[in-house]
């Protein structure tokens, strides 16, 4: 008989085994730690799904959201309407943008941001008289969320399974091969290619750092062929890339035409995303007479904007960009020795507060995650057996060392 215990259908899960084994129920978080329903504490290796950048349990964010919700929870961001705090947040984000003068289009999360960018790229080319530029290009290993455009652009084959072709005009090139982008543009024709979507670090596809010079090279290829460069910074944004930078696009001077963000914008306290639009792309839409029929009921939600404001306050006041930079060095130092374990084939580290411990046998990924839990670490496998290490920026030096030794014990 099929076991169907519990009412909650989990995302990205084999519900057969979740029903049989029971869920892992998390009840509390503080700093870089979480607690389960039995009161056991775990180091949070992943900051949830790469988002709790300022750490768990920040009452300051909760207080800001409460104050906003009791004043004005939300109204509408369509037409000429906005909440005062949403307007102020857009100005604050524009001041941090890698491209000066960027416009900010708010969404409810990363998948919304990606599909907004996909539609905006195509609509932009229509507005400037090149409607035949419709092809969107992603990369092998890429993850761009779960809406139709993002799923179509993903380079994780299993994420396409069972849907047929969701979006025509989606192409894929090698994640680490700038020449394959050039080859595709030459084959399809620059007059048909609208945009190239690029995660500065491949995240959910297994945590792969860009080869030296890769980002600059693909950026230049896009410039040379009039293809919009879309930096998907849902993971890397708001400090996670290290280098004391708000965005990978700033650290690597990518000058993206469009930049998608979410997660670290609010540190996940409330769902929110934002697309940063370079002035050249926004211009046709600001010329008068163009009505872009796109937007989300909760885009720029006032309560979420309050969370984002408080989150940015914390990052600035506590110097958390520098803490992410500290983690870049510390993670590399403590994780590299794990490559000597039989269970580990490679450690990918050294760029931002993001690393991966690659299991030699990807089929053992769930066993490894379970072993880590027994050793007091809440972790997760991405891609093909890559243990994702992306802690909150407030994880202390001692906790980073403890994290590595617990993972080492779990994998030994
Ligand atoms: N883009 C990237 C690079 C991501 O890593 C993710 C989520 O992990 C998304 C988009 C989708 O974000 P969300 O899950 O908030 O819709």
UniProtKB/TrEMBL annotation:
<dbReference type="InterPro" id="IPR005814">
    <property type="entry name" value="Aminotrans_3"/>
</dbReference>
<keyword id="KW-0032">Aminotransferase</keyword>
<dbReference type="GO" id="GO:0008483">
    <property type="term" value="F:transaminase activity"/>
</dbReference>
<protein>
    <submittedName>
        <fullName>Aspartate aminotransferase family protein</fullName>
    </submittedName>
</protein>
<dbReference type="InterPro" id="IPR049704">
    <property type="entry name" value="Aminotrans_3_PPA_site"/>
</dbReference>
<keyword id="KW-0663">Pyridoxal phosphate</keyword>
<dbReference type="InterPro" id="IPR015421">
    <property type="entry name" value="PyrdxlP-dep_Trfase_major"/>
</dbReference>
<dbReference type="Pfam" id="PF00202">
    <property type="entry name" value="Aminotran_3"/>
</dbReference>
<comment type="similarity">
    <text>Belongs to the class-III pyridoxal-phosphate-dependent aminotransferase family.</text>
</comment>
<dbReference type="GO" id="GO:0030170">
    <property type="term" value="F:pyridoxal phosphate binding"/>
</dbReference>
<dbReference type="InterPro" id="IPR015424">
    <property type="entry name" value="PyrdxlP-dep_Trfase"/>
</dbReference>
<keyword id="KW-0808">Transferase</keyword>
<dbReference type="InterPro" id="IPR015422">
    <property type="entry name" value="PyrdxlP-dep_Trfase_small"/>
</dbReference>
């Amino acid at each position: 008989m099929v076991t169907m215990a519990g009412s909650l259908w989990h995302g990205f899960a084999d519900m057969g085994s979740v029903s049989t084994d029971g869920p892992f129920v998390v009840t509390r978080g503080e700093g870089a730690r979480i607690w389960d329903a039995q009161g056991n504490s775990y180091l949070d290796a992943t900051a949830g799904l790469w988002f709790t950048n300022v750490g768990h349990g920040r009452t300051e964010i909760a207080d800001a959201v409460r104050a906003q919700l009791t004043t004005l929870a939300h109204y509408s961001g369509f037409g000429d309407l906005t909440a005062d705090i949403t307007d102020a947040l857009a100005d604050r984000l524009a001041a941090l943008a890698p491209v000066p003068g960027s416009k900010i289009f708010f969404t409810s999360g990363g998948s919304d941001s990606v599909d907004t960018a996909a539609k905006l790229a195509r609509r932009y080319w229509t507005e400037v008289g090149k409607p035949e530029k419709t092809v969107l290009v992603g990369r092998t290993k890429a993850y761009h969320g779960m809406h139709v455009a993002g799923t179509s652009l993903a380079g994780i084959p299993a994420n396409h399974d069972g849907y047929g072709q969701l979006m025509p005009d989606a192409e894929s090139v090698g994640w680490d091969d700038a020449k394959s982008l050039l080859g595709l543009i030459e084959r399809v024709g620059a007059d048909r290619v609208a945009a190239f979507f690029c995660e500065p670090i491949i995240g959910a596809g297994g945590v792969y750092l860009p080869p030296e010079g890769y980002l600059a090279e693909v950026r230049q290829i896009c410039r040379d062929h009039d293809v919009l460069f879309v930096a998907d910074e849902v993971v890397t944004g708001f400090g996670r890339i290290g280098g004391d930078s708000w965005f990978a696009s700033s650290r690597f001077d990518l000058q993206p035409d469009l930049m998608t963000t979410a997660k670290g914008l609010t540190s996940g306290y409330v769902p929110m995303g934002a697309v940063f639009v370079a002035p050249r792309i926004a211009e046709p839409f600001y010329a008068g007479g163009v009505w872009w029929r796109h937007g989300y009921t909760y885009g720029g939600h006032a309560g979420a904007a309050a969370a984002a404001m408080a989150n940015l306050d914390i990052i600035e006041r506590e110097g958390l960009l520098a803490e992410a930079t500290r983690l870049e060095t510390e993670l590399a130092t403590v994780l590299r020795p794990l490559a000597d374990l039989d269970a580990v084939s490679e450690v990918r580290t050294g760029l931002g507060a993001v690393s991966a411990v690659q299991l030699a046998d990807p089929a053992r990924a769930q066993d490894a995650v379970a072993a880590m839990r027994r050793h007091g670490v809440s972790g997760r496998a991405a891609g093909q057996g890559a243990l994702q290490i992306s802690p909150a920026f407030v994880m202390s030096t001692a906790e980073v060392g403890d994290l590595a030794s617990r993972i080492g014990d779990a994998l030994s």
